[in-house]
Predict the 3D structure of the following.
Amino acid sequence: MALTRSYKHTIAERAQRDPEFAQALLDEAATLFLNGEPEMARIILRDLVNATVGFEELAKETAKPSKSLHRMLSAKGNPSMDNLAAIFAVIRATLGVDMQVHAVRAH
């Protein structure tokens, strides 16, 4: 019988050892939000928080309760733009990256 692992553990381990992968997850979450796919974006952000800063530290950094942050980043969560901005800021600082948005015309 083949052994299997949780994808969450695989994602977390890779994000911890590969900064470019972690940054790609952050970029993907931002792109998904901007393209109208917030549910998947929240799931990616949740996995990235678990792999990097952790919810307890995120709670300290954002001055939001950990349970509230868990709810915000659930598939059915509904974080405000202020809360999303705070979450992105903490993850960006943790990863030591900057993000810039570039508009591309749709054809």
Remarks:
- The chain has a mean pLDDT of 88.
- Helices lie at 7-17, 19-34, 38-51, 55-62, 66-72, 81-95.
- The two ends are 49 Å apart (CA to CA).
- The chain has six helices and no strands.
